[in-house]
Amino acid sequence: MSKGLVEKSDAILTLKGVGKHFGGLKAVDNIDLSIKKGELHCLIGPNGAGKSTIFKMIMGVYEPTVGEVFYNGKNITKMKNWDRANLGLSIKMQVPGVFGELSVYDNMRISAQKHMKSSERDEEIDNLLRFLDIIHLKYEIVNNLSHGQQQWLEIGMSLASKPELLLLDEPAAGMGPTETEFTAELVQKLNREGVTILFIDHDMDFVRKIAEKVTVLHLGKKFAEGTIEEIEANQDVVDIYLGNS
Amino acid sequence: MRNLKMKLNTENVIGIGLFLFLFIYPLFVTPYQILNLSYFISMVFLTLSLSLIWGYGGIFSFGQAAFFGVGGYFYAIFTMNSGISTITPIGLLLGVLVGGLVAGIIGYFMFYGGINDVFVGLITLCITVSLETFMAQTAGSQWKIGTVGLGGYNGINGIPTISLGSFALADVNFYYFILIVLLVVYIGLRLFVVSRFGYTAIAIRENRERTKLLGYNVPRFQTLIFALGGALASLSGILYATWGGYMTPSAAGLTAATLPVVLAAAGGRKNLTAAMIFTFIYYWFSQTLSASGNEYALVILGAALILVILFVPEGIIVSLFKLGDNLFFNRKKATQVKAEGEFT
Amino acid sequence: MHLTKKKTKNYIGLILTMIFMLLLSACQSAETSTGSGAGGSKKDAPIKIGILEDQSGDFSLVGIQKLHAAQLAVEEINNNGGLLGRQVEIVAPDTQSDNKRFQEMARKVILEDQVDVVMGGFSSASREAIRPIMEKNKMLYFYNNQYEGGVASKYSFNTGAIPDHQIGTLMEAVIKKYGPKVYTIAADYNFGQISADWVRTETERLGGEIVGEEFIPLGVSQFASTISRIKAADPDVLVTLLVGQEQSSFYGQWAKSGNTKLPMATTVNMAQAYEHKRFDPPSLANMYVTVTFMEELGDILPSAKEFVDKFYKKFPDDKYVGMEAETQYTGVMLWAEAVEKAGTTEVEAVIDALETGISYDGPAGTAKIDPATHHAVRNVYLAYADKEHKITFPQQWEAVVPDWLSKEKGVDLTKKDEFKQYTPLD
């Protein structure tokens, strides 16, 4: 595959003509997406729109059927998922990918040890746990944690690699109002510290609170893009949400 | 490395106790019993190899017996071709390396090919069966490597024991040699599983895909740990060959491959000490039954193993460790945090 | 730490399991084990024989017959005043058809039970596993079993049937009667390969021709393609050298789709694992086997009948008295003769006595030790199973001498010590 022209913008992530076909089904159909460095960008859309699939193609879990993925100008379409993680991409998946039988510390350590020296590691783990406000649970077995706490832990694990781009698939899913509030603050804090964030969520309050830019997907295609106000004012967007049950 | 301080728990207490016992054992038993225990110790490495790759790495292998055979046969052929007794330690080291290498090559093709879980078990099973069948028919004298005939189903006998310099290890000396090797390997493995490699293995065991997304080259690590398991199994085969002077395809075949799986499962595969202890118990128990001439020895053992796996699926020794911890060590710190680096 | 319901159940299960295991180990039946070392004055202390046979596992069908045969022999010796005025005791651990077990138990009976002689082993692998242990410990060892031949070892005496006894005689009989074209199917390991090699040599010596030769890996139980090849080759005789439960399924498959008029010849089946009684006719129809003994020999030989009767009297639940039972019985008796002659159980002296050519008139006629090769000179009987599996003995050879080792390999253990196994596969 040719390297293609690299756009001379401050785009950290670019998808060009990316599609994922499962047999005859086009789960993702010709997406062009550009995420700028430092952005807090949200992907929304009805169920089955292809959002999680796009995330998986960014992280390398799926390979795109067509199209290319660029990270900081580099073509990563065929790169192995662990190599992408080591480039600065990090993800919190929809289903919590924590190690339930281990303690919070062990979970953090598994992530942290890959990306820092052992002398810094434990201090850094503590910092992150404090940041996520779960330091008091350091030695608890993860299966004993609440769903929300597990989500935060997973965010913590994603952060241990000091990512440049953080993908969050439904970070506030299953959380109550206080927890959602906390998560929103967390995400904003991270963004202020320079982490580019691309997230998926269905909770419109949550999206409204934090998203700078919103892309709407529908049936695998890009449907609309803009600020949250622009999107909410867009009647077509409202229709696709109401029309699809 | 600051988590190396040894915890006071049942596992460590029993582990230390066991080694102390093993070290003073020769002082109060007959030469036959020393010889016998040497044999048990040689088989512990095989169970440990499976505990490492399966209990910690999540790789279910039916092929550890095959590497056992590779090690034993390599050692026999290498040392018997050279004819010099001083080369035997080199034979041992090379045999371990060869076992690891063979396992590494097989692992490479499996893990980089994306093969995992039950399919690894199937492939290693096929390898074991093919190897056993092949070796069984090498009876003719065209089947020679150098001057050493492979011997077909009758195997190779007269395999030399280890000699340190010109001193051939036998009886008590051999016992202490093999015991020290066990101690070194055991400590090495215990350190390994709390190191970053151990954590990586466990992460892979728990959730392979997630671990990849955390930045780990999972196939490479699986290949390496599988190679290490192969090296350990190979060591077991070599020590068995030097103990008994004999190596045969049936020692590396299908039946032999099943036993470490059962022992690791019944003792507790996620704990090295448990796997080790249960191996000792099983071999002692089964030999006592056999020596008594009881026709139902095999049936009794099978029934006992089934019961263990039904009632205590995480392993009987591991459960005993936990019981001990609850009774003796955690009482005071009922609500306190568990110490670092402990895997349940 | 509060116990959840699940944990309580687990702990109870754990304790129950442990109690169960302890109970099981406590109620082992110590059938014939005698426990540890020799004590007391040598004069009154019993003489001990270590019997290493498979009482469980794949080979137990024959292993138990051999154990019982040894027990019968020892009982008779004891009833006749013992050996050198002392009673004889058997130490018989179960080797479980497992070569490793053989190694363990060999060491145990030598070092811990301190037996005066070891007898046992069915498969050649088990023999080769322990022969070096016998040699290292200078222990007298009797391998009373059929095998592929070739062991030349100072401390080993191999009283069972070997190719010298069985194959030349067998091929002579069947080629003469049926014709020169022979098809061989053999188990693909030492015994099968070496026996097949002997069959080839003997067939060609007798002016015959091997029209097909197939080696089947152990454990294989499907023979469809083999059967078509046999039919295509159209031999006069089919030689089968199949070993193990799986391979014996050949006979049922052959009876269904083969040509049951085609005579079969073997050195392995019927006499040991009594397939002619276990499989329905006509699976083994038209089969010839050369044996040193089998139960049905009692129909034509009084000494055989006597042996079979007293065997069933002592062991009424046993199913068959086979070739190796007699080999073991005779082996024990030969050893006893040698001990009487030597006046001691001391190994070197007994070996010297055996090497004078000790003989014993046993259930199958006279058996005599061949001094040079440490094998046995024996009568050989040709057994034939008809389509109802009824056994007759159309031919016999007297005092067949096992001289391949001495003639072809120059072995003479009376003059020069050796510790190896020769094979003809060169």
UniProtKB/TrEMBL annotation, chain A:
One Pfam family in the UniProt entry: ABC_tran
CDD domains: ABC_Mj1267_LivG_branched
Residue ranges of every copy of the ABC transporter domain listed in the record: 13-244
Any single Gene Ontology cellular-component annotation: plasma membrane
Xref: InterPro entries: AAA+_ATPase, ABC_AA/LPS_Transport, ABC_transporter-like_ATP-bd, P-loop_NTPase
Record-level Gene Ontology MF annotations: ATP binding; ATP hydrolysis activity
Taxonomy, superkingdom: Bacteria
Cited SMART domains: AAA
Coiled-coil residue windows: none
PANTHER family from the UniProt entry: CONSERVED COMPONENT OF ABC TRANSPORTER FOR NATURAL AMINO ACIDS-RELATED, HIGH-AFFINITY BRANCHED-CHAIN AMINO ACID TRANSPORT ATP-BINDING PROTEIN
Protein name per Swiss-Prot or TrEMBL: ABC transporter ATP-binding protein
Organism of origin: Peribacillus glennii
Automatic annotation (TrEMBL), chain B:
Main location: membrane
Subcellular location: Cell membrane
GO molecular function, one term: branched-chain amino acid transmembrane transporter activity
Topology relative to the membrane: Multi-pass membrane protein
Annotated Gene Ontology cellular component terms: plasma membrane
Residue ranges of the TM segments: 12-34, 54-78, 90-112, 174-199, 220-240, 272-290, 296-323
Matching Pfam families: BPD_transp_2 (PF02653)
Highest taxon listed in the record's lineage: Bacteria
InterPro entries the UniProt entry points to: ABC_transp_permease (IPR001851), LivM-like (IPR043428)
Keywords in alphabetical order: Cell membrane, Membrane, Transmembrane, Transmembrane helix
Protein known as: Urea ABC transporter permease
